Amino acid sequence: MELRVIELPALIRLSEEEVMRQTLRCLSLCDPGVHVFVLIIPDAPLTDEDKAETEKIQRIFSSRINKHIMILIKQDSEHQTAELNEETQSVIERFGGRHHFIDLNTHVSVLMESIEQMLEENRGEFFSTETFLDAQMLKFEEMKKKIQSLETHVLSQGSTEREDDLRIVLLGKTGVGKSATGNTILGRKAFTAEASQESVTKECQRETSEINGRHITVIDTPGLFDTELSNEEIQREITNSISMILPGPHVFIIVLNLGQRFTKEEATAVEIIQETFGEKSLMFTMVLFTRGDFLENKTIEQCLGKPGSALNHLIEACGNRYHMFNNKETRDRTQVTDLLQKIDNMLKENGGSYYSCKMFREMERQIQEQQKNILMERVREREEEMKKLEEEKERMKMKIEEHHDKERKRIEELKKEIREQEKHQREIRDEMRRERETLRDEIEKMRKKKRKLRPNMKQK
Q1: Where are the domains of the chain?
Q2: Measured between alpha carbons, how far is 242 from 256 in angstroms, rounded to an integer?
Q3: CA distance readout (Å), 440 to 428, 437, 450
Q4: Which candidate, 79, 121, 170, 448, has a CA 20 to 30 Å from the CA of 365?
Q5: In 10 A of CB 29, how many CB atoms?
């Protein structure tokens, strides 16, 4: 039995396109399909990254993977136990319940018995490229239904919207002051705000207030653009914020902290927003700096760096719209009034419109189309790879046959040479035998002649 093992890289930090590429590559290397996926997890409380990785695997491969997956729980050989912590048990149940404990002393044969039993239960079925593509298409259909449902909800709620309503989504990494900014805008402690390296806001939160007779809604999001989050997770959270602020946000505000170094993840904020909502979304985006007290005697322009810097590039991409808050001076409502004025100016430039569900639906359709094209392209590449592999296989087969032919000819030549040598040796042996016999005959004749001569000698 041929055993083929393929290692799939960790998916959590990969882009959606790279995930598709790696997944299809893995499946193509196991053509016609994968009999068993082995997911290795430690016998310890799972980290956030471990949890995100397992969730992403199930999201990418769908529940169809459950028939073909075995969870391996890695244990210390000195501290073995059959008891599982709640998180690990939850992961195992989510993937269908099959699991096996392993340590340094585990024999491969024991593991193979469990895998072979699973194969018998599946009657030889495998997880193929077609299975994967079917799962992706089902996911697209579910997303389409969700968007249609949101659009229906928007239409039903549209009549209740007031012209002076304002809907704001705050985006930014952990610790930049998004929650404090939301509180400053709303004029009350609506969001939990504290200095922390871990995100206080775990999921999107929606709060509203009446400001100068206007109905203001603010969505506070978890720490986006953090190093441990993948682009896909960021996109999912931003998408979730849209569903909480129907019929759509008037402005996306990217919150930055003047007292912190501008990071690579923050620099890619525009790209992520564009990937999620399309280029038009930048018409509804601006930058807000917190820690205005950090300026002291400087102007905000002096803190933006040289022309062409990453920070300046971000602001230019957002239409050179930016503002500054000092969240310690919550009584200073002029900073809020000025922000609302800048947002109103932006709305006038946009014809008074907002980022609508219709735009979102169009962008989702484009994303789905792109992903579908990526999938089909990967399938085409896989077919090309398989074709090349088959051609290479044929070439190798011909080379091997050619080599075997040469070897057979060489062996035949060697055999012929050996036969000729053996024949020559036999001829030499025969000749030597004849010479020995001739010599014996000569000696015998000489002896006889000698015996005849002796009597004559005596008579004389």
Answers
A1: 162-355
A2: 21
A3: 18, 5, 15
A4: 170
A5: 15
Which helix (H) or strand (E) segment holds residue 396: the answer is: helix 357-459
Could you tell me if 293 and 259 are in contact, meaning their C-beta atoms sit under 8 angstroms apart? Answer: no
Average pLDDT, the chain: 77
Separation in Å, CA 426 to CA 244, 278, 330, 439? 102, 92, 116, 20
d(CA 79, CA 252): 51
Could you tell me which residues come within 8 angstroms of residue 454 by beta carbon, excluding any fewer than 6 positions away?
none
Contacts of 259 (CB under 8 A, 6+ apart): 291, 294
Task: List the structure tokens of 375.
Answer: 């999938």
- Under-70 pLDDT residues of the chain: 1-2, 15-17, 76-82, 104-107, 143-144, 146-164, 193-202, 223-243, 265, 269-270, 275-278, 355-368, 370-372, 375, 455-460
Q: What is the DSSP letter of 56?
A: H
Query: Check: CATH 3.40.50.300 for 162-355?
Result: yes
The pLDDT value recorded for residue 338 is 92
pLDDT the model gives residue 158: 47
User: Which pair of structure tokens corresponds to residue 207?
Assistant: 């709060």
Cα distance between residue 23 and residue 6, in whole Å: 11
Asked if residue 102 lies in contact with residue 72, where contact means CB atoms within 8 angstroms, the answer is yes
Two tokens at 389? 């592999």
pLDDT value of residue 341: 92
- Residues 335 and 329 sit within 8 Å (Cβ to Cβ): yes
